[in-house]
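Figure 2 data, in text form.
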Amino acid sequence: MSDNPWFAALITLFLWWFSTGIILWRVRVADNGTAQDHMNSVVIGLPLIAIGVLAARASLPDLSATGIYKAFLAALALWGWIELAFLSGVITGPNRTPCPPALRTQDRFWRAVGTIAWHETALIVTLFALGIATIGAANPFAFGTFALLFVARISAKLNLFLGVPRINTQFLPRPLAHLASYFRLGRITAFFPISVSALTVFSALLLERAINVEHPGMSVGYSLLTCLCLLALLEHWFMVLPLPDEKLWRWMLPARRTLSLTPPKEHVEEANGL
């Protein structure tokens, strides 16, 4: 497989767009059906786990460009199934109710954690398993890819909880409609510049390694991670800048019945300090 870093960047961009779109499409199709259709989505997606495990195992001793792509795709396959299970409402958390208004931030935080606890546990267990598997292995990029996705997702979730000016809730499926009540629509907090600065610095560090590392396989791996980190940074800026990011996938999705997922007025007012 090509060891051209530009090819790696294009592959990352395509997989980010395509994998997000196909998951959103399947969840929307199930949304237009019954609750059982969401469970069917998770069952249909089970081969992703097998693909991820087998590809990750095959990649461990292989530091060639082919091995790097196997590791990258393995992490995406495992991540994709867990996200599909989350968006389908199968692996979420013990709390499946909207957030009561006027809660203290601390209480709202723990209730928010309860809405995603099993999902985060699945991600942490998978991350830990990949970390153990890659100890002493020649190719650590399955773990590196999954770890980057995990850290970027935690950062995004914290920003949505603390407050950002733009929150796109139109892709939230019906089983997760209650999550909108835990978002804060308003001014950014101090955490936003910290998170985007950290992602920017980490992107620069990864780019430096992609440029200066001598091994062609490692260069591909760092190029994939650089592009992935930059996409995570872009997703953070989508929370602030008035960009129509929803158009990237909205055209792919079937229409659904109208369902208001706008955060309640109390949360909007609280975020704006009213």
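Caption note: The CA atoms of residues 71 and 141 lie 6 Å apart.
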